[in-house]
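User: As part of a screening pipeline, I want to sanity-check one entry by hand. Below is the sequence and the SMILES for flavin-adenine dinucleotide. Please return the complex as structure tokens so I can compare it with the automated output.
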Amino acid sequence: MDVIIVGAGVGGLTLALALRQAGIPCRVFEAAETLRPVGVGINILPHAARVLSELGLEAGLSSAAIATREAVFFNRFGQLIYREPLGRHAGYEFPQFSIHRGDLQQILLNAFLERVGPDRLHTAHRCTGFEQDETGVTVCFYDAAGTSTLPPQRGRLLVACDGLHSVVRKQLHPEEGEPRYSGVNMWRGTTRRTPILTGASMIRAGWLTGGKMVIYPIRDRVDGTDLQLVNWVAEIETPNNMQRDWNRPGQLADFFPAFADWHFDWLDVPAFLRAADAILEFPMIDQDPLPWWSRGRVTLLGDAAHPMVPRGSNGAGQAILDARALTDCLATGGKVVEALLAYEALRLQATANVVLANRRNPPDAILREVFERTGDRPFAQIDDVISEQEIRALSDGYKRVAGYARPAP
Ligand SMILES: Cc1cc2nc3c(=O)[nH]c(=O)nc-3n(C[C@H](O)[C@H](O)[C@H](O)COP(=O)(O)OP(=O)(O)OC[C@H]3O[C@@H](n4cnc5c(N)ncnc54)[C@H](O)[C@@H]3O)c2cc1C
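Assistant: Here is the complex for your manual check:
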């Protein structure tokens, strides 16, 4: 009997590839009828890039993604607060990749089809729950529309990689409430334009109270032109929003006023936003860390295990690290139940720390400090507001929690 993986997102497909490399058979069951390139930008930090490189995916990622070279922080007046190198430019062994979620999923899917095989991917299978006994797990499915029951599938163990709305998580923790809204709404989109700053800069500007922007390129030379596909996220404190559909269209008019006067010498933000290809709206949500993930032969991975607010570029990366850790635990050849507990011991607290750091002190805490200390006014010199040492402490503190602090030379 093989490993049953529910969900063919970033976590599920990475797990399937890692299991394959370790010689452990698996099948993947995905609710969607076809895997379409949905979503917008996503980041792979160097520790997750290492895992994907060791799965032989670095060349594919390098040609599809942008190897991001610097993080740059501005206030809402366009004044530079801080810049620091990223990925290989900061001396890491592996790059930081900024990539379209659809491109990342496609790279993982192509490798899956080639190495694991198309007969091991079952789309239009919406998991509805599971039962387990001492020898295995029986997983139940509906079709994509959720109207007809499909034959149940039996496996040695079940790994739920079914994302934010995980049904397996709900079955394991029925008492848990709905995801927790952070009070910040996000509008996400992409715009085709000529390179901004270095053409590989991850820009954060403003602050959540009045409006914050995150901007970074995710594809080079779109349609053979000199244009890049540039991802952006507008984040604004908004009292209520609980509609959690990754594909929900957003309206420019709902957030544009917050950025209407952001005309900087490095970017005309209003023109940039008006030129967007498409806009999606999504609330910034997460859930309190769970006390446990594994029961018997069932466990959780990625967003199903630890949904986090996307303020540290870590959602996909932590799912990838989970996949590596779980594979290593299963590859020891010991008992399944013990392997799942060992995986949980490696990853639960580590990811809980990231969930909590993303709430309190993600990298954009630098922007919050400047916002509060200046009373949201322009500064004469940044050193009068905050020292470079303090900024570095915020940035390095987050890297330590998220597991990608660079070892001292
Ligand atoms: C459609 C979509 C768009 C997204 N867009 C972005 C984005 O633009 N930027 C960003 O940072 N993050 C985005 N994310 C989230 C991001 O992919 C994850 O935070 C991160 O990659 C962790 O991946 P994951 O595999 O745990 O979850 P996900 O990537 O969410 O994958 C979960 C997978 O499980 C499938 N699934 C869900 N329920 C069931 C079920 N009952 N049975 C079977 N399969 C099921 C889903 O269709 C999906 O393929 C998006 C997720 C989705 C599903």
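Points to compare against the pipeline: Residues 6-12, 29-32, 38-40, 42, 101, 126-127, 161-165, 167, 188, 246, 302-304, 310, 315-316, 319 surround flavin-adenine dinucleotide (CB under 6 Å). The longest strand covers residues 180-193.
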